[in-house]
């Protein structure tokens, strides 16, 4: 039985990946950091049925900022595959906590790689680094692919740039099987509530039911290439099953603005919105003329990534990548889930 270790197992991708690997028959070990309240809602169901119940899924306390915990867990579990998904993953928050973001996102990757090497597991253990389209930042080429130059635009992206290169460096210096998945934005009904897609579907569902009056957003002109997390975690696994380690872009090749996302989510709720104004003065009104969406400059970022669009040709050719979920299906699934949640909890 193969063993996998997932950092960030309580997050969106960690939950989808853990489920995917358990279904493949893996023994899955997850690292979670200590929190004052339970925060395992995304993975609790994995303990309930087989195979989770039979001990195939285990959690360990650890933190990306603490080498000793990472080393101990690696030594105890001796995994075949390590998926480094843990990160302070919010771009806007990284401007407020730049040093912590560097510690967990940049140094965290180094701590894991160095522990694998130090423990003499470099030949056995394959390593996946959760790299990101944010590396492209101020884009130098459209669409972005593996060879597009990076130009990070936030402390988060700069930290991830270090993690990207240290992964490449350990591959080249120590012959480790280590790869970067350069994943473009991917969402789901269990996306964190402060990322823009989930913020939109959650708020519009509540506005529809009358439990919230308005949604405040930042830059509505930002464009992203949005896919479904469920599709993307399969590619993380595939990257570790190849003959040689390489880096891959994973994206849909379709781009929409934040405004498009708002309009599509409203449509799924049978709300018709009319947008008026520009920049900080933009609003969207419902059929009755009431303002339901408003731009609030507090959500503008000190430096913005205006546009991202991925070219996943390499993954398509070498990994057989084909995203299963369309943009419309993604929005519908998120809206449906948030409507149910709003009905249940108000
Ligand atoms: P989430 O924010 O949902 O999850 C992040 C996970 O990391 C959580 O489990 C969180 O724990 C954990 N974590 C944060 N800091 C630490 C720390 N210091 N020590 C241990 N664990 C920590 O992110 P996603 O699931 O969306 O993303 C997974 C990874 O992929 C991240 O590295 C992200 O930067 C990257 N990425 C994401 C993309 C996306 O569109 N989703 C696109 C490209 C890359 P807790 O639950 O306690 O907060
Ligand atoms: P991003 O995702 O920064 O791309 O990082 P996010 O959903 O936070 O922002 C996308 C775009 O929407 C604009 N925006 C807003 N964003 C948020 N969060 N809240 C708002 O109210 C709002 N209004 C407009 C943003 O300015 C931005 O342009 C995500 C994270 O998952 C990263 O970890 C990952 O690396 C990248 O995706 C790929």
UniProtKB/TrEMBL annotation:
Protein's GO biological process: 'de novo' GDP-L-fucose biosynthetic process
EC number: 4.2.1.47
Recorded family membership: Belongs to the NAD(P)-dependent epimerase/dehydratase family. GDP-mannose 4,6-dehydratase subfamily.
The name this protein goes by in its record: GDP-mannose 4,6-dehydratase
A Pfam match: GDP_Man_Dehyd
SUPFAM superfamilies, per the entry: NAD(P)-binding Rossmann-fold domains
Organism: Roseovarius litorisediminis
Catalytic activity from the UniProt record: GDP-alpha-D-mannose = GDP-4-dehydro-alpha-D-rhamnose + H2O
Domain NAD(P)-binding: residue ranges: 5-334
Cofactor(s) listed: NADP(+)
Originating gene: gmd
Alphabetic keyword roster: Lyase, NADP, Nodulation
Enzyme class name: lyase
InterPro entries the UniProt entry points to: GDP_Man_deHydtase, NAD(P)-bd_dom, NAD(P)-bd_dom_sf
Primary role: Catalyzes the conversion of GDP-D-mannose to GDP-4-dehydro-6-deoxy-D-mannose.
């Amino acid at each position: 039985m193969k063993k996998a270790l997932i950092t960030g197992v309580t997050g969106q991708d960690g939950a989808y990946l853990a489920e995917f690997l358990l279904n493949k028959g893996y023994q899955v070990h997850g690292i979670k950091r200590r929190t004052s309240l339970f925060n395992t809602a995304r993975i609790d169901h994995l303990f309930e049925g087989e195979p989770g119940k039979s001990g195939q899924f285990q959690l360990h306390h650890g933190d990306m900022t603490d080498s000793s915990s990472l080393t101990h867990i690696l030594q105890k579990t001796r995994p075949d595959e390590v998926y480094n998904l843990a990160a302070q993953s919010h771009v806007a928050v990284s401007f407020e906590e730049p040093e912590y973001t560097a510690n967990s996102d940049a140094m965290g990757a180094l701590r894991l790689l160095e522990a694998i090497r130090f423990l003499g597991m470099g030949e056995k253990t394959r390593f996946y680094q959760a790299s990101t389209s944010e590396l492209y930042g101020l884009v130098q080429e459209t669409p972005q692919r593996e060879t597009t130059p990076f130009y990070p635009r936030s402390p988060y992206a700069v930290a991830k740039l270090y993690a990207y290169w240290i992964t490449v460096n350990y591959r080249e210096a120590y012959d480790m099987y280590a790869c970067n998945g350069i994943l473009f934005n991917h969402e789901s009904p269990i996306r964190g509530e402060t990322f823009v897609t989930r913020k939109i579907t959650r708020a519009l569902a509540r506005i529809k039911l009358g439990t919230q009056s308005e949604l405040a957003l930042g830059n509505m002109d930002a464009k992203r290439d949005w896919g479904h997390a469920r599709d993307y975690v399969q590619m993380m696994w595939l990257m570790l099953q190849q003959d040689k380690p390489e880096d891959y872009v994973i994206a849909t090749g379709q781009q929409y603005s934040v405004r498009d996302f708002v309009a599509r989510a409203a449509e799924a709720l049978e709300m018709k919105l009319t947008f008026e104004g520009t920049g900080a003065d933009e609003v969207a009104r419902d059929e009755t003329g009431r303002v339901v969406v408003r731009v609030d400059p507090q959500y503008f970022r000190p430096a913005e990534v205006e546009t991202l669009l991925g070219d996943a040709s390499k993954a398509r050719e070498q990994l057989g990548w084909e995203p299963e979920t369309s943009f419309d299906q993604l929005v519908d699934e998120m809206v449906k889930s948030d409507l149910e949640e709003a009905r249940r909890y108000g």
